[in-house]
């Protein structure tokens, strides 16, 4: 009898306590498990034109994700042939990071300058991600430019 009475008294208290509990939302976890592999970052051709406003049209290659670290090798392609600032056959080493908010930042030494590629990777199932790249210094220097990255 006391067990039933105890249960009858504890159920309303448990219900009241449960109603006031709002778990704090957790930060999104970095999505790195399915991201290693082939990547492409391209400059879209502006509407109303037929040429790209940059010496580099795309970076293409393989990236490896390990925790928050990213490494890889890419090649730079130009909108003109031959590329005036870097050979299509030159392997360019990539290093970078992806943070807890899934913001990807890559650094690529290129022809005496440095390219910085930045995009937010939404999740491992979103293959197109908007971002920017900029090349500071060297023969391929260019201002910050809108890009699309694909995996």
What does this 3D model show about the protein?
The structure is a single chain. With 151 residues, the chain is mainly beta. Helices cover 12% and strands 43% of the residues. It is built from 1 helix and 8 strands. The protein has one helix at 2-19; strands at 37-42, 58-66, 69-77, 92-98, 103-110, 113-120, 128-136, 142-150. It has an 8-stranded antiparallel barrel with strand order 1-2-3-4-5-6-7-8. The termini are far apart. Mean pLDDT is 79; it is low at 1-18 and 20-28.
What is the radius of gyration computed over CA atoms, rounded to a whole number of angstroms? Answer: 24 Å
- Extract low-pLDDT stretches: 1-18, 20-28
Given the helix and strand composition, which structural class is it? mainly beta
Order of helices and strands: HEEEEEEEE
Tell me the distance between the termini. Answer: 65 Å
SS element count, helices: 1
Report strand %.
35-45%
Mean pLDDT: 79
Percentage of residues in helical conformation: 10-25%
Spatial order of the strands forming the largest sheet: 1-2-3-4-5-6-7-8
Q: Major sheet, described briefly?
A: 8 strands, antiparallel, barrel
- How would you describe the shape? globular
Task: Report the count of strand segments.
Answer: 8
Q: What's the short version?
A:
With 151 residues, the chain is mostly beta strands.
Please describe the topology of this protein.
Blueprint: H1 2-19, E1 37-42, E2 58-66, E3 69-77, E4 92-98, E5 103-110, E6 113-120, E7 128-136, E8 142-150
Antiparallel strand pairs: 1-2, 1-8, 2-3, 3-4, 4-5, 5-6, 6-7, 7-8
Keywords for this entry:
151 residues; 43% strand; globular; disordered N terminus; 1 helix
């Amino acid at each position: 009898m006391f067990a039933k009475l105890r249960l009858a008294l504890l159920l309303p208290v448990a219900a009241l306590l449960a109603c006031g509990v709002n778990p704090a939302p957790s930060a999104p976890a970095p999505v790195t498990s399915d991201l290693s592999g082939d990547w492409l970052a391209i400059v879209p051709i502006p509407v109303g034109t037929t040429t790209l406003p940059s010496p580099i049209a795309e970076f293409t290659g393989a990236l490896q994700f390990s925790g928050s670290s990213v490494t890889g090798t890419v090649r730079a392609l130009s909108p003109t042939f031959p590329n005036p600032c870097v050979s299509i056959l030159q392997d360019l080493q990539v290093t970078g990071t992806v943070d807890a908010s899934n913001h990807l930042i890559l650094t690529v030494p290129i022809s005496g300058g440095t390219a910085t590629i930045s995009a937010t990777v939404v999740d491992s199932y979103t293959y197109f991600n908007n971002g920017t790249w900029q090349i500071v210094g060297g023969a391929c220097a260019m201002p910050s430019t809108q890009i699309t990255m694909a995996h």
